[in-house]
Specification:
This protein has a three-stranded antiparallel beta sheet with strand order 1-3-2. α2 (50-62) crosses α7 (173-184) and α5 crosses α7 (173-184). It contains seven helices and three strands; from the N terminus they run ααααααβββα. The protein is 39% helix and 5% strand. The chain is elongated and about 90 Å long. It is mainly alpha-helical and 192 residues long.
Length: 192
Amino acid sequence: MRFGGLHTDHRAIVAVAVIVFFALTLVMAILPALREQAYSGPPSVPPRDEVAARGRQVYMREGCGFCHTQFVRDLPMDRPYGRPSRPGDYVLEDPPMLGTQRTGPDLADVGTRQPSEAWHLIHLYDPRAVVPQSVMPAYRWYFVEKAQAGPGDLVAPVPAGSAPPGKVIVAGPDARALVRYLLSLKQAKVSP
């Protein structure tokens, strides 16, 4: 069976190749892109408060975005961190901090995954106190060691082995702002 001379007609072979190419482009690139663009994002994204916005500036200044991404790719290694990101997820992120090294976990949904303010304070003061295998540096300069907490002080409940004996660890303004920013990183729950 010769399929009407298709195997000997170079024009027909090129035409079939072009049709297959465009069909695959439509199915693999254009239709998925149109589906993603049709996603309008969460119905309403509350603006960040002033403290969280300052925390984002601290995050950028410290270079946290180099090691921590803020987008979840649809890869098996990222699935424990939440759903894949959608275009509407970055309404408040200008510029989006997509990371470069991927040394630390993805933070796109850290506010949902780790909602404890105390955990984040301890993690900033002594990362290995809460994650023993962490390679993150400690950001102790954002904290003050005091003999006693004063009114309005936010005490970081650092474990006894991590804090100096007889001292309480009080979060400074940048630590408070950074934690508020991290707690604001939440992905909207949407159906796939």
